[in-house]
Amino acid sequence: MEIIGNIIKGAIHLKDALTPEVNPIEAQEKVLEMLLKTAKDTQFGKHYNFETILNQETPSLAFANQVPFFDYNQINEAWWSKLHEGEEDVTWPGSPTYFALSSGTTGKTSKRIPVTDAMLSAIKQAGIDQVTALSNFDLPAEFFATEAMMLGSSTDLTEKDDHLEGEISGITASNIPSWFKGFYKPGEAIAKINDWDKRVVQIAKRAKQWDIGALSGIPSWMELMLKTVIDYHKVDNIHQVWPNLQVYTSGGVAFGPYKKSFNVLLGKPVTVIDTYLASEGFLAFQARPETTAMQLVTNGGIYFEFVPFKPEYINPDGSITQDAPSLTLKDVELDQDYVVIISTVSGAWRYLIGDTIEFTNIEKAEIKITGRTKFFLNTVGSQLSVNKLDDAIRFLEEKFKTTIPEYTLCAKRFDDGFYHSWYLGSDNLTSETVADVLDEFLKDANKNYKVARSKALEGVKVEVVSPEVFHDWSGANKKKGGQVKMERVMGEDKFKTWEDFVVKY
């Protein structure tokens, strides 16, 4: 196996050496031109006159001026709904082969996001580029001959009319390249099991037959799978089952809040590599070990724009105002949160994906995810984004020597005024000891929160519940596993449903 590993590692190093370095700004200009040329004869392209945009001196500026922003509801109602009525050439030539079902973290019903063959090709290429980037990490040759566990949603897709539907992780897993199938686990038969708990039990039963070197999946569900495997085999940590495990590819949410609880399941450190794969496309991945930031995939099937994340540009429902300015890569700055806007080879145009990011290196187009537009807690002027909330959780973990893998909160009105009402998932923490510490940390970390505390925000209330409550909430309201993520910030109506669920638990 070491010989095979050396051959694969050598091939990856060679491909990396022969691949020219991408200039992100130039690459993005080419991607926009390709998108506009390909879609100019679609219904959308004709409506917004892509032909004229292409003939302008600065197509990026004309594109921003001529095409409005869309969130999912807006583009689905005006355009994508036509695809479900059998129309073709709507926002992209032809009709999509797949629709990715995504309720995200806040939606009540599944979104149906088109996934074209061109998008699948772009995702595969980004995946190859990520594998090539492993040459930048100090990984031994034997790692490259091990197997990879991809823990996503079921690959048993639903056939509907002329397309298939499922979560994006299931769609991509059902389209893995033939050369990778020998390395891919849990394999097609287990991956098709719809019931999450049954699928994980089968993984546990087969676990010792596999030589897993890499894991890939959302942290919360990965933790549950690892715990099941550990319990099934009556061992202390996952390395007693998979001794060659060396890499964990995280994605979908920030890994920070899960780091401490995840590490408890390990027998030795692993290399954690972040990725940014959403239902709308493969946006970014960590390309080098010197940073935890991710490099935008600027030469694939996605064109990026960035709106400064400021309260005056954000509507109450998390969408952005039509007068909000948008920037291209050449105009962004460090130390500024931006709302990500994408246009893609699946026919999404100036589309609000819902995430906020910050650039850590503009020349390399490296970013970190800072939160969600809908998770921006700005009641009574507190202006807390998810990265600030995650920082608070990490502080509490260190302060109280505990793990808090899940949390949610709401700015809730009580009889004596507004409070930030938190629920923390922990097995060895008490509510009474946390509230004051949390409040003081947020005051020190965020000046807007401190000002709000001196005015209309009365303070912090904390309830501690078992992390299992969060997992069961996701299972009861949506579906376990896959792309399902816990809401970090809820509105009052959703929060009441959550609190009713907790009481009955």
Automatic annotation (TrEMBL):
InterPro entries the UniProt entry points to: GH3, GH3_C, GH3_M
Domain GH3 C-terminal: 389-491
Stretches assigned to the GH3 middle domain: 298-363
PANTHER family in the cross-refs: GH3 DOMAIN-CONTAINING PROTEIN
Designated name of the protein: GH3 auxin-responsive promoter family protein
Organism: Olleya sediminilitoris
